[in-house]
Every structure is written in C-alpha cells, then in structure tokens.
Design goal:
Elements: H1 12-15, H2 25-57, H3 61-72, H4 76-87
Length: 88
C-alpha cells in the first residue's frame, strides 16, 4: 500500500488532499452536531419517562417508606429484616 509520494521535498500544495472526501468537512460537522443534539433530546425523553414511572410506583406512602427503610439499611441483616417486614 503506497501513498504515491516518492519524495517529500515537493510542495504539499501540489500533492493535494491526503484523506478521502475533501471538502465535506462542514457536512460531517453538521451531521455530528445534529446527531449529538438528537441523542440528548431522546435521552431527555427516556429519562423523563423513567422518572414518571418511578414516581407513580411510589405514590403509595407505604411503598415509599418501605423503600426508604431498605435503602437506609447498613447491613444485609437489617435489609432482610426490613424487606420481610415490608412483605407483611
């Protein structure tokens, strides 16, 4: 595989572009920017949907208190006791 350049002492302007698709840089920047913004919009919508689902699941105050007790447990034994009490 050769670059086709035999000597590097010639003018670089005479050689031309060393990469494919010269002149399309701005198009690629725009495509990248649109993709980046689009990803953020999609991620924002998905996270809001997940947040709303979690919020609905904790509307019941008893479930919320049980979840808070489980998350506050410092040891596995405390967590198991809190979990068994929440099932009763």
């Amino acid at each position: 595989m050769s670059t086709g350049i035999e000597t590097w002492s010639q003018s670089m302007l005479d050689i031309g572009a060393m990469y494919p698709f010269p002149g399309t840089e701005m198009i690629w920047v725009i495509i990248g920017f649109v993709t980046w913004i689009g990803w953020h919009v999609i991620q924002f919508k998905r996270e809001n949907k997940l947040y709303e689902e979690e919020e609905k699941s904790f509307e019941n105050k008893d479930k919320l208190m049980a979840a808070m007790k489980l998350s506050a447990a410092e040891t596995l034994d405390e967590e198991m006791k809190a979990h068994s009490n929440s099932l009763k």
